[in-house]
Amino acid sequence: MLQALRNKLHGWPTIVVLGICVFAVAFFGIESYFMSQTETFVAKVGKHEISQQQFQDRLNRLRRQDSERMGAQFDASVYEKPEMKQRVLDAMIDQQLLQQANDDLGLKVSDQAVRDSIAAIPAFQTDGRFDPAAYRAALAGAGQTPAMFESDVRTSLALSLLPDALAASTIVSDEDVQRFIDLQMQRRDLRYVVLPKPAPADATVTDAEIESYYKAHQADFMNPEQVSVKYLEVNGADLKVDEQPGDAELRKRYEDEKQRFVQPEQRLVSHILVNVPKNATPEQQKAALAKAEKIAAQATPENFAKLAEQDSDDLGSRRQGGDLGWLEKGVTNAAFDEALFSLQKGRISKPVLSDEGYHILWLRDVRSGQAKPFEEVRAQLVQEASSGARERKYAEVAGKLADKTYQNPASLEPAAQELGLTIKDSGLFPRSGGSGIAADPKVVQAAFSDDVLAQGNNSGLLELAPNHAVVIHVDRHVPAAAKPLAEVRDAVRQKILDERVAAAAKKQADELLRRLEKGEDMAALAASAGASVQSAAGAVRMQPDVPQPVREAAFLLPHPKPGASAFQAVALQDGGYALLAVDKVQGADASKVSAQQREMLRQSMIRAYGEVATEGYLDALKKRTEIKVAKDRM
Amino acid sequence: MAFDAYDDYEQGELVQKWLRQNGLSIVVGIAIGLVGIFGWQQWRNHQASRQMAAANLYQQLQAAVLAGQNDQADRLTGQLQSEFADSSYTAFAVGERAQREVQAKQLDRALASLQWAEGHLKDAALKALMQLRIAQVELASGKAADALARIDGVAGDAYKGLAQELRGDALVKLNRPDDARKAYEAALAALGEDAPQRGALQMKLDDLAVAGKQGA
C-alpha cells in the first residue's frame, strides 16, 4: 500500500499539495503558544483561581444580606470601597486555603454531620422534627436537587472542620484560668487624697495675654462653615384637591368593591371527632363509624360538651367542650363545610366523614352575613377617593417640580412661577444640621455637596417623608472663620485662668508626691493641703466608689515591696490632682468565683485561643502557598 | 528507508517477525499500564473510604464530648488510634483527649497524648502548634525551663502571638520579669487588633509594671 502511494507521488503539483498539507497540520494549534494568555482571576491560591464571577457573586450576596438585615440604614456605597472588597476577597482566600488544607490533611465531612446539619434547618421541619416531604418540597421550590443541596452543605461544613478541630483540642489548664481570675479580680489596698484645687498663682490677666492666647489657639475659637438655602416645598397634605367625587362615581366604586363592605355568614359550632387513621382497614373504619353513631345518638345540646371532653379525638378543642368558635365558609374542609352550612340552628348532625375521621357537629348559633349599605360607607369612600386624588396630585406637582428645577439648574424662580409655589429660606446651618428642613440629614448632605454648594445648581428632589419633598438652592455660604476676639474675650480669660490653676495643681501634687516618697506621712500631708485620706482596702478594677482615674492608675502601679507602698500623683478629669498610694496587692477572692463561672471562663478562653491558633495556621498556609491577587480586576 | 527492496509479501513477513519478537513485551506493557491505572483508582477509593470512616468516628467522638460522655469519647479515640493512626483526625482526637486529661490533672498522660499527636502529624505547621501545646503542659507541670527551651525551638514566626504569650508565662515562672515583659509586648504586637484575648494579655503586661514606667 505504501508502495502504491509512493509510485503515484510524482510531479511537483502533488508535492506542493502535500507540502501545504504537512505545513498546515504541523503548525496547527501552535498559535496558542505565542498568543499572550489572558488571565481573568481575581485571586489565585496555589493552583486554584477565584474568578471575577465568583467574587462578584459573593459580593452581591453579602450586599443583599446586609440590605435585608439593616433595612433603611443600609448604605450600598460601602461595597464599592476597595477596603471592603479587599476584606471580602481575603475571606474567600482564607476559605480556599482551608479547603486545600482539608484535602492535604485528608479531612472529610462525615455523612452524619451533613445529615444533622440539614435536619437542624427550621425550613425543613414540621412541629420541630425533620420532615423529608417538606425538605424535598422546599428544595424543589428553590430549583435544587437533594444531591446539589447536600454538596453545598458539605462544602460549607468543610470550612469549619479545621477551626473546630483546632479549637476542640485547645489546652487551657486550671492554672491558666486561675491566673486570669487573679488578674481580672485582683485586689489592691489603696489610700488616696483628692487635693483641693489651689488658687492660680496670679489672678490678673492682661489684655496682651488674652490677645496672644487667642492668636495661639485660633482653632479653638472658630465658627463652623455654614450655608443657608432657598427651597421649594411640595407637601401632599397642603395640596388643594378641588375635584369632589360625584355620587354616581362613588356608587360605582361601591358596586365594584362591594366585597369589602360585606360580612360573610358565620356559624358557631362545636364538634366531636372520632379519629380514623389514614390507612385504616375497613374493620377500623366500621368500628369508628359505630362509635360515632353511638355518640351522635346520645348527644344532646346539654351533654355535648361533656361528651366532647370524654370522647373527642380532637386534642385542640376537647378541653373547650368541642368548641370551634365562629367559622366562615371555606375555613375547614369541604365535607365539614357542607354539613355545617346545611345544618339548622341548635341541631346536632349525624356523623360526617372528613380526612380526619367522623365529626359530630352541633350548630349553636348563626350570624347571618350582612352588607353595609351605601349610605353608611359613603364618607369612607369619599375620603379614599380624595386621598387617592391627593396622591396623584402630589406625584404630578413633584414631578413637574423636579423637571423644572432640573431644566433651570441655576435658579428656583422659573419653577416657582410655573407651579405657583413660594420660595422659602432655611436660615444658616452648619454641617451638623439645623432646624426646620435643615434637621433632615438628606438636606444637609445635599446642601454641602459639590454639585449644589460649589457648582451652584439646584438639588434633586429630596424626599423628606412620604408625600413631602423639597428642592434646594444654596443662597449664602459662610466659610469657617475665627470668632472675633470681643465675642470670646471672657472665654479666653477663663481658659488662661484654668491653665494657671492646672499648672499650680500639678506643681503642688508633684511636691507632695516627692515628700510622700521621702517617707512623710500621707495623713499629715493631706491635712496640710486641707484634705483628708480616703482608703479602700481590697479594691478591684471596677471598684465603684473610687474615682475612675485613681482606680486606673492604681492598677498600673508596680507591686509595692512588702511593707512599703507605691505612690503616684494622678490627674483627675476636672483638672485637679489626687495623691495615690498602693499598699498591698493580692489575687482574687476565691470565694467569689463559683465552679460554674470557672467552667464558663475556661470555655471562652478555649474559644479565644482556638481562634488565634486557627489564624496562626492560616498564616502558615499563606506563607507556603503562592497567592496572587489581581487588584485591578477586583 | 529502502521500501523499494520489499514487495507486499515481504513487508507482511517483516511486520509479523517484528511482532513475534516484541509481542510479549507489548502485551506485558499494556497489562502493567492497565493494572497501574486500576490499582491507582482502587487505592484512591480505598483512601477516600478510610478518610470517610475516620471522619465518621471523629464525628461520633464530638457528639460524645458534647453529651459529656468522656468514657465513650476515650474509647472512640482509642479506636481511631488503633485503626487510623495516620489520619489527621486521629491526631486532633488525641489532642482533644490531652485537653480532657489536663482538666483531670493527669498532666503526664496529657504530655504523652500530645507527643503521640505531634509524632503522627505530617504537617509542619500543625506539628509546631502541638509543640506549643506540649510546652503549655510542661509549664503547667512546673517545668518552666523545659517549656521555654521548647518554645524557643519552634521554628520561625509560627503562631507568634500564642508562642510569645506562652514564653512570657514561662519567664514569669522563672522570675525574669524584664524578659517576660518583652515577650508579652511582642505577643501584643503580633495579635490582631480585635483578637479576643488582648485585654487579658494587657493585664498580664500591666501587672509586671516597674517604677518609672507604669504600664510599659
TrEMBL record, chain A:
Residues 264-365 form the PpiC domain. SUPFAM superfamilies: FKBP-like, Triger factor/SurA peptide-binding domain-like. It is a single-pass type II membrane protein. Its main location: membrane. Keywords: Cell inner membrane, Cell membrane, Chaperone, Isomerase, Membrane, Rotamase, Transmembrane, Transmembrane helix. Belongs to the PpiD chaperone family. This is Periplasmic chaperone PpiD.
From TrEMBL, chain B:
The chain crosses the membrane at residues 23-40. Residues 17-209 form the Ancillary SecYEG translocon subunit/Cell division coordinator CpoB TPR domain. The keyword Protease does not apply. It is found in: Cell membrane; Membrane. GO terms for cellular component: plasma membrane. The keyword Membrane applies. One of its GO terms (molecular function) is protein-containing complex binding. Its main location: membrane. Keywords: Cell membrane, Chaperone, Membrane, Transmembrane, Transmembrane helix. It is a single-pass membrane protein. Pfam families: TPR_21. PANTHER family: ANCILLARY SECYEG TRANSLOCON SUBUNIT, UPF0070 PROTEIN YFGM. This is Putative negative regulator of RcsB-dependent stress response.
